Amino acid sequence: MCLKYPVEVVEVNKDEVVVDWGGEFKKVLAMDEIKQGDYVLVQNGIVVEVVDRKAREFFEKHGC
């Protein structure tokens, strides 16, 4: 079971970003510089990490 999985950033507004959470769009807080199109891990409504393509593919492959 995955507690966090990569979601795509679809909009950036200063310290708040909108992510595509499986077709549901949610606003979350971001403390680091994040760009539209990045994939991030979110926990408790806060971006905790930007993930690279290799990590995202691993998550997708293992059903997370």
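Next protein, fold it too.
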Amino acid sequence: MLHVGNARTALITWLFARSQGGRFLLRIDDTDPERSKTEYELAIEDSLIWLGLNWDEKANQKDRLTRYDAQIEKLKADGRLYPCYETSEELGLMRKALLGRGKPPIYDRAALELTDAQIAKYEAEGRQPHWRFKLLHETIEWTDHIRGEVKFEGTDLSDPVVIREDGSPLYHLCSVIDDIDFDITHVIRGEDHVSNTAAHIQMFEALGATPPEFAHNALISDAEGGKLSKRLGSLSIRDLREEEGLEAMAITSLLARLGTSDPIEAFTTIEPLVKSFSFSKFSRASAKFDPAELFRLNAKIIHDTPFDSVNVRLAEIGLPDLDEEFWNAVKPNLEKIADIKEWWHVAREDIAPVIEDPDFIAEAAQLLPAEPWNNETWMNWANAVKEKTGRKGKQLFMPLRQALTGMDHGPELSDLLLLIGPEKAKERLSQHKKAA
């Protein structure tokens, strides 16, 4: 499922493309048949559409294997790809040994020294080679749109594996070939890919192409600056939507501004984020993802949402009779759309009133204004009760709220009283007899 980290990179790429009048390509990296399932691909598309991220073109790498094979053969002929016969266990031991000696885990190119006899022996054992891209041991440099000047020495990098033992090509080489064929001008990815980009640049050059421009955004951390935890389920977009009930624009509002110099605000449409986008605003420091801020933005968006934008969704969650008056009265108390069910229950269904002072509620019930009720009914009633009992402030309002709603918080009583209506209000206030 699409995770918030990947969604953020997709969003940044989309905002950049749209801000420049460019095109946004959705590419599905599905050359690994075991991990690539249609349900995941559809979930990615569904999440992107829900977030408002449309694409101009789509490509599946599994459909381009013939093209990859042709370019792979070219690189083999040019001596830039070479077969290696080490098993994953052997490579793991080599890596562990190098790290134990305080050295970087760089592949030693031992495969280049294999004799025909050694290769024949490995193949007789049933070993299938994986293939590596041979890096030139020279300086690799580029100007990154976020990180500025970036420089690597080829000698400090391991030759990357680009073809698996089963012959299927890996992300590295496939993505480079795709970028060439689709005329990609800019690639935006997480900073954990910086060293991969250095290797990719040499792949572009080995295939006779000019590398695109790159931007590497800082990764997301949790609110304390540590590794992002899974406090909100799996932190997939699908879970944030279906399990947490969040609005798409709350997620977009937060992810678009994380790690930038712009303030994080609640947006109800994506257009302002396109207009304000600039790589110059991005920091190289890790961006802190705070779930509390996500819910705060969500609440703000709901508070600014007109009834016409939610009436269909309200019907979908079982509230087809909920009207604009009800929505406007309770939306300032909502954090998520689903929270409105609680206030519908309070206003329209049976509840258990909380009555701790039956005598006070009895007096209040006697003073309840006659019908028809209007916007002044609550204030007239509260003033009458205040004058009769001498109570004021919280001692006046809280017992009335508890008796009417069974709760000690909620929408303004002036609005809530009209939603409850005379019949239910009288019925709930009459519970003072049972309390007594």
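About the second fold: The first strand starts at residue 25 and ends at 28.
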